[in-house]
């Protein structure tokens, strides 16, 4: 009898579904502002406090710092994203997350990649994601990023339109550079492009 009760009880148990957690790297340019040793994630969290309070973003850990740039590992509760954002291809997914990290502030102070992207190496090629701009490549090929990294080439490679912010078409552009760029300077390239824009419009994956 007891075994029957145990079987019935086991069948009746409803286990809560586990949230889908995704892990990302986030670079943050502190612009020289010192951070608290007791809470090194505070500079990142204050860009959009509400999403951290709701645990959409969670489990923040500082893993590296270099001059003014901090590198964090952050977990995302994917189920808290809008359904149409949950299964985007990686480049467009990280573009959405980078927008959300910066929602509380003007500008673009972060760069977001998945943790499987090597975060500690130099790079000469990157994919930039931004609202599609027919003149982006012509403009970027004339730039010398940070006054020391000239562009070698730029090519439009793909776009995505459905259900992203403001119903924008987001373009992906592959850019190569004439010399290697240290990985933790990547976020500063994004900031240079975003200069003068009220909201964050860019993200980048380097390889």
UniProtKB/TrEMBL annotation:
Domain of life: Eukaryota
Name this protein carries in UniProt: Uncharacterized protein
């Amino acid at each position: 009898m007891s075994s029957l009760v145990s079987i019935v009880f086991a069948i009746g148990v409803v286990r809560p579904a586990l949230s889908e957690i995704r892990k990302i790297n986030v670079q943050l340019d502190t612009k020289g502002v010192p951070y608290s040793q007791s809470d090194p994630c505070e500079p990142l969290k204050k860009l959009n406090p509400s999403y951290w309070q709701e645990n959409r973003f969670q489990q923040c850990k500082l893993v590296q710092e270099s001059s003014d740039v901090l590198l964090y590992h952050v977990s995302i509760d994917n189920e808290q994203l809008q359904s149409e954002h949950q299964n985007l291809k990686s480049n467009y997914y990280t573009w959405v997350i980078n927008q959300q990290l910066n929602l509380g502030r003007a500008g673009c102070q972060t760069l977001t990649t998945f943790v499987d992207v090597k975060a500690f190496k130099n790079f000469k090629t990157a994919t930039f994601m931004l609202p599609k701009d027919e003149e982006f490549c012509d403009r970027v090929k004339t730039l010398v990023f940070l006054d020391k990294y000239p562009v070698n080439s730029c090519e439009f490679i793909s776009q995505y339109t459905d259900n992203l912010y403001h119903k924008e078409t987001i373009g992906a552009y592959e850019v190569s550079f004439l010399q290697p760029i240290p990985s933790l300077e990547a976020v500063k390239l994004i900031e240079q492009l975003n200069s003068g824009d009220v909201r964050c419009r860019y993200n980048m994956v380097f390889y």
